[in-house]
Amino acid sequence: MTIAPERPPQSPPAAQPPPPPGPERRRRTGSLRSTDVYAVLGAAAASLALTWLLFARLLPFSGAVGFVLVAYALFLGLYALLVSFDEDGPAVRDRIAGAVVRSLGLVLLAVLVFVVAFTLWEGREALVHLNFFTEDMSLAGPLEPLDVGGILHAVVGTLEQVGIALALTVPSGIVCAVFLNEVPGPFARLVRTIVEAMTALPSIVAGLFIYATVILALGTERSGFAASLALSVMMLPIIIRAADVVIRLVPGTLREASYAMGSSRWRTVWHVVLPTARSGLTTAVILGTARGVGETSPVLLTAGFTAELNALPTSGAQVSLPLATFELVKSPEPNMIARGFGTAAVLMLLVLLLFVLARIAGGRGPGQLTKRQERRRAEASRKDAARQAAGHRGASGGSASAPSRSTP
Amino acid sequence: MTTETLDPLPGPPSGPPSGEPAGPPPDTPRRLHADPGLPDRVFRTVARTGGGLVLAVMLLVGGFLLHRAWQALDRAGASFLTTESWEPDAGRFGIAAVLLGTVLIALVAIVVAVPLATGAALYISEYAAPRLRRTLVSTVDLMAAVPSVVYGLWGVFWLEESILPIARWISTYLGWIPFLRVDGADPDDPLAPPTVYTSSTFVAGLVVAMMVAPIICSIMREVFSQAPAGEREGAYALGATRWGMIRSVVLPFGRGGMIGGTMLGLGRALGETIAVYMVISQVFTIQWHVLQTGTSSVSSLIALRYGEATPFGMSALMAAGFALFVMTLIVNFAASSIVARSRSGATSDA
After folding, report:
1. A64 contacts in B (CB within 8 Å)?
2. Residue ranges under compositional bias (Pro residues) (chain A) (predicted)?
3. pLDDT per position as a tens digit, A318-357
4. Domain count, chain B
5. pLDDT for B287-327, tens place per residue?
């Protein structure tokens, strides 16, 4: 009785319905009733009024935060009271829990959206200047207006560092993930455990490692290449784990079918496992990239800081987007802070772009095809059918039945 | 000799007994062996080499950290865990203050993030309209990928000011709880400077909470949505309300995922650097009072001191980093074993 109110049993759809009721009315299957809406609205109005009364007339309270908290608590109490007029205990608890869960969820989502919107909004002053994307900061002192200087050097640095890190991590990461799944054994278990452990490595410690080895021990200067090494140390376990999960999801029957056709292991991996897992692998790589693009702490220790465009990753300091943000907002000048927010907004947009790419590439399980892939397969199988029909030219039934063969 | 006479059956494959009369040679176990061919041998070698290479890199990182940290740990001994100050060149250094600060920030973050993440995960998986659900899932997943420097900006430029009234309210009315007290604050003086409340563990914890909440939320949502439909419908058929169904089916089913997700979030919160570094002002004393200005964390210690460190100071920083690594490692392994052992993990791990 707490789920839905009882309704009169419907008349069975007999062969000869009695004519008087007219056409059968459509039943509403939604569970929302008007009394629910009235209870919510009434409780909200009452709690706002009561809180105003408390704050303005009765008690020495003040402040917007306190107002919201008191109003919310009063709303829950009043809502429970209103619902309890015509429902029993479990239904009241259900309504209260529903209200609390909904508000918690909306608060979290609202805060998260606010964090991003705040950055974009604060960055709007810097973003509208075109020179922000085409110049570096070498000519822009702290007091220069926003139409001088930009973050081209940071964009170039980010692209190069992440590019090198990807060139190092993607092949080794995917080979390692293939190894974990296709050559099982005690050694693979050991590698998997160690990789899992290394995902716990704090990013600053990855930076500290490269700083201590490449820069202090080998004596090279801070450079974009050192930064990309630090990013690689951090991204490698992430990419391996994600790729491992994706490859594990490839159905075993596909592999067995391939073995049963007599193909060798590497042919199975190359022609069955990797193509099946391709969309998932792409997603894994893109999400790993998104993590790497935004990391500041490994880059902070290894890349150095410069205001000039340095397109050569192997020599000299090279700055990246998160590092530029971090350094720019340290300045007390409002223009530099606006540039910092603009840089953060560009970084955010880059992550957003990567994420959208991941959604387009992924989101499909292994074996699911896009429209285009489906069409291409249908085309290929039609060609096969035509060839077979040409082979048995004598047989008349073959060509008729072949096109109806279902495509995978 | 005696064994041969006692055992007339075909002996071990090492060799037939010499006394037997000549006949068909006894059966020996065949070695099962399939020649994979050259390409497959190459493939296996390449795969093994790849795995071994990754293993070598990982072990190199861990081993190098331990090796360099050993110098400092050896010199400091047990006092490494009890000393508060950080002056490695004077011989007085320890992680008591920074480790406590790290743990407190992470605890504040978890206390704030877990209820929010649980509510959001339940809302997305149980309450939201199916059409809205996909958008919400994407939003939360995107938020997990937002760079930490963006959260740091938000914390420094918005949260720090906006949170002052709440911090002041808590310390005024709940200040009798020891860890919520703020020394030097005078609630009766409306003109008292609010700086005693800024850059505190509480603010840093809130920023980190916003960073880890999406991660926790997406793990919990994944687990909640795997609760078996049959048991859900069973609960409804027995007359349960929606909340009754959640309490008796979804939450017990997802308990392992909830604990595991929380601990993974804790692992992230412990290692977070930049957002914390931007928000806090580093002090090297044990600071229990979470609302009071000044706190510390291991990762921001490294970010602060790496540049001016002598070789021995570097070794001390390595030791601090290694301690942090060990802590997150324990938390992560505990999390993954809990998730794997729970009923919910059993289905997702297939």
Report:
1. 165
2. 1-22
3. 888 888 888 888 888 888 888 888 888 888 888 888 888 8
4. 1
5. 777 777 777 888 888 888 887 878 888 888 888 888 888 88
Please list the helix, strand and coil fractions of chain B in percent, rounded to the nearest 5, in that order: 70, 0, 30
Please report the pLDDT score of residue B47 as a whole number. Answer: 85
Q: Over the stretch A177-192, which tens digit does the pLDDT of each residue have?
A: 888 888 888 888 888 8
Mean pLDDT to the nearest integer, B49-77: 85
B329 contacts B271 by C-beta, under 8 angstroms: no
For residue B80, count other CB atoms closer than 10 A to its CB: 20
Q: Which residue of B has its CA nearest to A210?
A: B61
Which of B145, B154, B244 is opposite residue A290, by nearest beta carbon? B145
Nearest CB neighbour to A93, from listed B51, B217, B243: B243
The answer to whether A248 and B348 have CB atoms below 8 angstroms apart is no
Is B191 inside any structural domain? yes
- AA letter at B7: D
- A40: Cα within 13 Å, side-chain hemisphere: 12
Q: Which domains does chain A have, with CATH numbers?
A: 34-120 (no CATH), 152-361 (1.10.3720.10)
Q: Classify residue B319: in a domain, yes or no.
A: yes
Top-confidence residue, A165 or A131: A165
Nearest CA in chain B to A304: B307
User: Is B238 inside any structural domain?
Assistant: no
Q: Which residues of B touch A209 (CB under 8 A)?
A: 61, 64-65
Question: Which chain B residues touch A179 with a CB distance below 8 Å?
Answer: 47-48, 50-51
- Distance between CA B63 and CA A194 in Å, rounded? 12
Tokens 């060798």 belong to A264
Phi-psi region of B238 (alpha: psi -120 to 50; beta: other; left: phi over 0): alpha
Cα–chain-centroid distance for residue A257?
Answer: 34
Q: Identify which of B109, B136, B145, B120 has the alpha carbon closest to the alpha carbon of residue B220.
A: B120
How many cross-chain Cβ pairs, A to B, lie less than 8 Å apart?
279
Is the distance from CB of B82 to CB of B285 less than 8 angstroms?
Answer: no
Cβ contact A237–B58 (<8 Å): yes
Give the domain CATH number at B208: 1.10.3720.10
Dihedral sign for Cα atoms in the order A248, A249, A253, A255: negative
Give the phi and the psi of residue A180 in degrees, each rounded to 5: -60, -35
CA atoms within 13 A on the CB side of B252: 9
Tokens of A375: 């069409």
* Any domain includes B162: yes
Structural domain boundaries, residue B154: 86-228+254-335
CA pair distance A277, A246, nearest whole angstrom = 6
